[in-house]
């Protein structure tokens, strides 16, 4: 395999966007074709990467390293492990579907598809970057196209939602940048992840660095109470913006916790596990209860994301391998399921221009294909056994119970509430006599079914046989948790030795 295949993954959508920038805006068909070719080619390359990825090891693989700005200690380093490879594959899988779902988009087509391609390139880069400056650049670059998608092609309150999204994420990123610069100074001027990982930090240094990174990723996840930008962004974003945001971008938060917070700052992680788990549990319950009272189906699904991603935070900070692996798999599952729900809501909105739950009745009779696909996606979201949501949430709860029983018990109520708000909304919209907008709504067409089919297949395939995903994820996650445990054991041993020496001096 080529030594630059990871670079190729980042470059294909970026080059496609650059080429489309020179196409006259009147050639709208070329923008669709160019975006489709760019995203499909990227997905095919990611399949090659996945086929060459060695399962069963925690080692970072396919490392590409080149001197970039050596006088500043900045290196161009890309690599993949069991955590990042699944998120890269999820990203490259989602974007061709997003392009196909947007095939009939006619509003400023050129900028729209270029923004999607730039966003894909930046997101792939975030999950593969192994230099902290390179990671930060990808982390910030992706804000621009997402800001444009919400602010230019969003709903009535798009300016408010886009500015709120941008400011929240920008502030978090700037805090992280301060932490990155400090770590580089401690690593002798290097920004390489391996060099930073080897730095010996005092407990005090770990605490404030932990929060510099944690806030950036907690905003991105988002974790309660830093979630308030998300419902606005989801509600006002165009359909594809909501899909990419839910399916991929939010996963950077969970990825960042596992890649940076836990391995770099183990003492601080152990110190703040309690409050973070409490925030995760509150997020699960709060998101579910607020979703229960929504009248807008899109906003309901947006708040459900707050609840589902609370599970991810709980699984990671339970510091237990089963729970943490479940969190990574749940990030993939959430991307598939919530992405599917947002797509279906978008297809509905394109036909009726309404997302009000009360404006629909009897959709299952009026649009059986749409109703059936929405039902499968709903059941996946409430973690029905046999579908993908279950094989993520159940290991999280099972693993968390082993280390923090109260968090698992409290979070389990979120599963019950999810069934309440989703099934109640489904019952009101899809059952009963045909009424409201359902009277004139047409069923999904061939293109829309083609968009949904791969997502539904994955819901079933992962739900029935999740072992391949866990085989990929487990070694890398276990290595992180074991390293945290080893670091904490070393600190305890040093403290015990110091106490013993002090007692000896007193005697």
UniProtKB/TrEMBL annotation:
Family according to the record: Belongs to the complex I subunit 4 family.
Organism: Euzebya pacifica
Repressor recorded as keyword: no
Compartmental location: Endomembrane system; Membrane
Domain NADH:quinone oxidoreductase/Mrp antiporter transmembrane: 129-415
Residues spanning the membrane: 6-23, 30-54, 74-100, 112-130, 136-153, 165-187, 207-226, 238-260, 272-293, 300-319, 331-349, 369-391, 403-426, 447-465
The keyword NAD belongs to this UniProt entry's keyword annotation: yes
Protein name: NADH-ubiquinone oxidoreductase chain M
